[in-house]
């Protein structure tokens, strides 16, 4: 897990206001990290989303219920992290992002009535809506520099939440006790892999919020 933890540190801006003194650079990306780090974030989120699709075939109902929203989150974060030098979405794409994840937030809120742990999905979807709205409201030039987007108070609150979630999830991600006579679980049914995916997406969210 060390490379995953390194990702959050690598995405942090070098200094407040320094990038605003220079013109747009080809080595900066829409989520404001170096290109190599952005591709690492893309790969992490895409692989996480792909595994969540596999979990949708799980024999465990709770796994299937959560997997769809988490797959959407993983692929959405991967698309948002693609370097702007490779692809810059049109302005109308950000309201579409906000609408899609707004619908996901409503679904998570509905599901959380009987399963409070789905509130984390609500917060994650709301964070995606917030980032998409910030990108839609910012001038095009702001997509290529560090900082300058979002509301600092909201960004800070989301950073605190996801940092705490990452630390707590990392502490809970310990090897499971031997399962006794039961056979090995299918790849889509292994809860420790599901927790690792949520941990990875939490770290990716911290990395993206740090650069707003």
Provide tags for this entry.
7 helices; 61% helix; mainly alpha; disordered N terminus; 0% strand; 212 residues
Number of strands: 0
The biggest beta sheet reads:
none
Helix content: 55-70%
Beta strand %: under 5%
How far is the N terminus from the C terminus? 25 Å
Calculate the mean pLDDT score and round it.
76
Helix-strand topology string: HHHHHHH
Low-confidence stretches: 1-33, 176-183
The coarse silhouette is globular
Q: From the alpha carbons, calculate the radius of gyration and give it in angstroms.
A: 18 Å
Describe the structure.
This protein is an all-alpha fold. It is 61% helix and 0% strand. The chain has 7 helices and no strands. The longest helix has 21 residues, at 35-55. It is globular. The two termini are 25 Å apart. The model is unreliable at 1-33 and 176-183 (pLDDT under 50).
State the gist of this model.
The protein is mostly helical. It is 61% helix and 0% strand. The protein has helices at 2-10, 35-55, 61-80, 93-111, 119-137, 152-172, 191-210.
């Amino acid at each position: 897990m060390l490379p995953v933890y390194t990702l959050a540190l690598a995405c942090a801006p070098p200094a407040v206001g320094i990038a605003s003194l220079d013109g747009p650079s080809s080595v900066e990306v829409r989520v404001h990290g170096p290109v190599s780090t952005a591709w690492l974030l893309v790969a992490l989120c895409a692989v996480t989303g792909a595994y969540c699709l596999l979990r949708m075939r799980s024999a465990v109902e709770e796994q299937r219920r959560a997997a769809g929203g988490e797959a959407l989150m993983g692929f959405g974060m991967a698309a948002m992290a693609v370097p702007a030098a490779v692809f810059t979405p049109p302005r109308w794409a950000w309201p579409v992002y906000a609408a899609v994840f707004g619908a996901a937030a409503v679904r998570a809120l509905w599901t959380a009535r009987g399963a409070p742990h789905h509130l984390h999905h609500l917060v994650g979807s709301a964070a995606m809506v917030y980032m998409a709205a910030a990108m839609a409201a910012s001038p095009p030039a702001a997509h290529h520099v560090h900082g300058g987007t979002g509301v600092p108070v909201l960004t800070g609150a989301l950073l605190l939440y996801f940092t705490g979630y990452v630390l707590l999830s990392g502490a809970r991600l310990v090897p499971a006790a031997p399962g006794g006579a039961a056979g090995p679980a299918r790849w889509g049914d292994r809860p420790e892999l599901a927790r690792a995916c949520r941990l990875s997406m939490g770290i990716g969210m911290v990395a993206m919020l740090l650069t707003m």
